[in-house]
């Protein structure tokens, strides 16, 4: 069942998602060689709590962190650890969720650590572009497949692998609601998009093969071939006949300044 949101509920969801954007920006201030992902987790946890919200990921299905931190070949759901130390040339996907006023925010951004190889920058840019290509298709009357196929086409055109095992999702009072939003598919398939729907679109794109493996920790997903992966996510609401981005990368841009990645 797809839960359509009222105008008032969407405003509350925007507040939760804007806080996610601000949290990701605060984390961005601390991303540097020599920093542990557990330290980044503490930064995010304290920032969320200091702003009157709770970390949506902490304890969700038993997850032990307030953010997911996925380095290099880790696609998603990386557990923050003291032993995971960022180094020059790494990338780290930070996925963050908040619970505020009964509603959930969810967004992700993949950061470069110091200077990264040009081919890695290209992966990050293409994945972020694929996110916006998907958002452009999130109009009432289209179907989820329009979003999915737009993401897939943009990523595969550049020669990258599109992960199949993990998907975007509906969102609202619960973090994961119907419908599922894959990053691959065909136009005209999937759930019908309607005003009042809120979904998270989140391309997970690999530099090499689309294939992934699951770690024994029960959470971490890696690329099977060991190549880098990138992950970007926005939460959107479909209102007044068009997609409205509830989350934000603008706060991150303020921290990064002229530096793109």
Automatic annotation (TrEMBL):
**Could you tell me the gene encoding this protein?**
map
Per UniProt, a divalent metal cation 1 binds at 95, 106, 233
Cofactor note text:
Binds 2 divalent metal cations per subunit. Has a high-affinity and a low affinity metal-binding site. The true nature of the physiological cofactor is under debate. The enzyme is active with cobalt, zinc, manganese or divalent iron ions. Most likely, methionine aminopeptidases function as mononuclear Fe(2+)-metalloproteases under physiological conditions, and the catalytically relevant metal-binding site has been assigned to the histidine-containing high-affinity site.
What's this chain's function? Removes the N-terminal methionine from nascent proteins. The N-terminal methionine is often cleaved when the second residue in the primary sequence is small and uncharged (Met-Ala-, Cys, Gly, Pro, Ser, Thr, or Val). Requires deformylation of the N(alpha)-formylated initiator methionine before it can be hydrolyzed.
Does Metal-binding show up as a keyword for this record? yes
Give the originating organism: Porphyromonas circumdentaria
Single Gene Ontology MF annotation: metal ion binding
List positions binding substrate.
77, 176
How is this protein named in the record? Methionine aminopeptidase
Query: Which Enzyme Commission number(s) are on file for it?
Result: 3.4.11.18
User: Would you name any one GO CC term?
Assistant: cytosol
Instruction: State the needed cofactors, names only.
Output: Co(2+); Zn(2+); Mn(2+); Fe(2+)
Give yes or no: UniProt keyword Hydrolase: yes
SUPFAM superfamilies given in the database record = Creatinase/aminopeptidase
């Amino acid at each position: 069942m797809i839960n359509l949101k009222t105008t008032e509920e969407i405003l509350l969801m925007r507040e939760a998602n804007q806080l996610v954007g601000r949290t990701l920006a605060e984390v961005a201030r601390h991303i540097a060689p020599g920093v542990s992902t557990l330290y980044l987790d503490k930064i995010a946890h304290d920032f969320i709590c200091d702003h009157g919200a709770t970390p949506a990921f902490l304890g969700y299905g038993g997850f032990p962190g307030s953010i997911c931190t996925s380095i290099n070949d880790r696609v998603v759901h990386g557990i923050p650890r003291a032993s995971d130390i960022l180094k020059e040339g790494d990338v780290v996907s930070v996925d963050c969720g908040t619970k505020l006023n009964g509603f959930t925010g969810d967004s992700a951004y993949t950061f470069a650590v110091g200077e990264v190889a040009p081919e890695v920058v290209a992966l990050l840019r293409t994945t972020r572009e694929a996110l916006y290509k998907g958002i452009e298709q999130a109009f009432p009357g289209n179907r989820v497949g329009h979003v999915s196929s737009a993401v897939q086409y943009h990523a595969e055109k550049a020669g990258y692998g599109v992960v199949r095992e993990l998907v975007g999702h509906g969102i609202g009072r619960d973090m994961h609601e119907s419908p599922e939003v894959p990053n691959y598919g065909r136009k005209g398939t999937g759930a019908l998009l309607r005003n009042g729907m809120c979904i998270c679109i989140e391309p997970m794109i690999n530099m090499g093969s689309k294939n992934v493996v699951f770690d024994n920790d029960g959470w971490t997903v890696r690329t099977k071939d060991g190549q880098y992966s990138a992950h970007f996510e926005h939460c959107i609401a479909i209102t007044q006949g068009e997609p409205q981005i509830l989350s934000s990368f603008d706060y991150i841009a303020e921290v990064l300044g002229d530096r793109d990645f």
